[in-house]
Amino acid sequence: MMAASNVYNFRGTLQIDEPMLKHTSWRVGGKADQLYTPADIDDLVSFLRSLPATEPLMFIGLGSNLLVRDGGIRGTVISLKGSLSEITLLENNVIRASAGISCAKLSRFCHRNNLLGGEFFAGIPGLLGGALAMNAGAFGGDTWSVIESVTTIDMQGNVYVRTPKDYEIAYRSVKGNRNEWFVSADIKLTLGDGEAAAQNVKELLEKRNQSQPTGLPSCGSVFKNPPGDYAARLIEVSGLKGFRIGDAVVSEKHANFIINSGKASASDIEKLMKLVQRTVEQKQGVKLQSEVKIVGEFADE
Questions:
Q1: Where does the pLDDT of residue 208 fall: very low under 50, low under 70, confident under 90, or very high at 90 and above?
Q2: Number of domains into which the chain is organized
Q3: Are residues 158 and 256 in the same domain?
Q4: CA distances to 51, 70, 197, 276, 286 from 238, in Å
């Protein structure tokens, strides 16, 4: 590990051969060639402009929806955890939030300012940047339903302002320019009773926590809910609760969670995901689609 400022004259932190298990909620994954945490947006621009034009690049947040294979990641990973976390109240009930802010913190900011429509953010276990990238949602709401505009950055450090019309947005899916990454968003909400909204969110979280496993490494929901049904139900009726490969286990409490019960490898988890997909398709006739982004290289066998 070394400070980027010692080498590149930047203000962020550069880590070489960084184990990605430190940066994912499943606590698995090989090493990234290098991982950089920028000090702020200006520092990020400078760092990106220093990279070779052919450098593979990936942005991550809390790693709560990410499976990094055991062979690790070639190139550069930009981590927004602990970075780009500014949040500001603008005019006309608009919040400007940077991509590194946690969705839970964003939800609390909404309540404190008596703004409604962002309660669902409390149920998303990640950063705003990741929520934008996959149209994450909870409690019946989803991210892009409240987005007025976004700011993005490309590999050359150029910054753009985009609107929802620049993307193809669907359930847990956002398609746009693959060579741009989200750095902030303007979120349009409505005035209301923030205290009542906060109480409602508290009750929803308590109810959800009773039905979902806590305290063990997971990534939350592994598969998207198919139209008119629930992935957890399909997995459960297929007899897969408790099924395991190595230390990767289908949760007994909520079948759409895969738990790292000890020393699971990324390979164990990926194999279990594929087994669940095959079994549900064979028994229920439904091909489950993954919510999880799988990246990196396989380890040498």
A1: confident
A2: 3
A3: no
A4: 48, 29, 37, 9, 11
* Alpha-carbon gap, residue 247 to 253, rounded angstroms: 16
Catalytic option among 18, 107, 172, 218: 172
Cross-strand bridge partners of residue 170: 173
Three-state DSSP at 177 gives coil
Catalytic residue among 64, 79, 98, 221: 221
Tell whether 74 and 100 lie within a shared domain: no
Cut 0.85: pTM above it: yes
- The whole-angstrom separation of Cα 114 and Cα 107 is 11
User: Which pLDDT band, with edges at 50, 70 and 90, does 1 fall under?
Assistant: very low
Active site residue 46: no
Nearest CA among 29, 227, 203, 236 for reference residue 123: 203
Q: Judge if 68 and 106 occupy the same domain.
A: no
What confidence tens digit (pLDDT) does each residue in 96-139 have?
999 999 999 999 999 999 999 999 999 999 999 999 999 999 99
Which among 193, 154, 157 has a CA at the least distance from the CA of 177?
154
The radius of gyration computed from the CA coordinates of the chain, to the nearest angstrom, equals 20
Would you call 172 a catalytic residue per the annotation? yes
Q: Do the domain assignments include residue 44?
A: yes
Alpha carbon 135 to its chain centroid, in Å, reads 10
Domain encompassing residue 38: 2-79
**What CATH number should be reported for the domain holding residue 55?**
3.30.43.10
Domain boundary among 139, 172, 197: 197
Same domain, 69 and 95: no
Name the amino acid, one letter, at 122: A
Whether 221 is a known active-site residue: answer yes
